[in-house]
Amino acid sequence: MASLLNPYLSFDGDARQAMEFYKEVFGGELRLDTYGAFGEPGAGYADKIMHGTLTTTAGFTLMGADLPPGTEHAPGNNFAVSVSGEDESALRGYWDELSGGGSVSVPLETQMWGDVFGMCTDRFGIPWMVNINQPGG
Predict the structure, then answer these.
(1) What positions belong to coiled-coil segments (predicted)?
(2) Which of 88, 92, 93, 104 is nearest to 137 (CA)?
């Protein structure tokens, strides 16, 4: 699988409705994973979306999720650019360049879902997510 670059949208509790709407608009296949599937992080979050992916026949990929508990939803913090794939060397290289001179909010390390994942903001203020897919994931 080649690496994928796409927008990642954050929502204030209505990610399911938003992602279902985008599916109506663009068509394609929608996969939604809840916080509850990975252990509920807080009251009322079991059915909220931890990660959603819409993949369309036109070649679009749109990802989105509900913000974790305690995270403020405000214009400007409701998106990131996601880079993902299986080429660990290339993706770690992107991470090193993107995080260099910026700030790291989630270190690039193995997460509860099994992939290596990190979040940073580059020196220009753009938020990035890097996910290195692990075999079997």
Answers:
(1) none
(2) 88
Neighbours of 35 (CB within 10 A): 21
Contacts 24+ apart (CB under 8 A), 72-75: 73/10, 73/11, 73/12
Beta partners for residue 6, in sequence order: 82
Domains, the chain, ordered by start:
4-132 (3.10.180.10)
Q: What is the pLDDT of residues 17-68, one digit of tens each?
A: 999 999 998 999 999 999 988 876 677 888 999 999 999 998 899 999 998 8
Task: Check: CB of residue 109 under 8 Å from CB of residue 121.
Answer: no
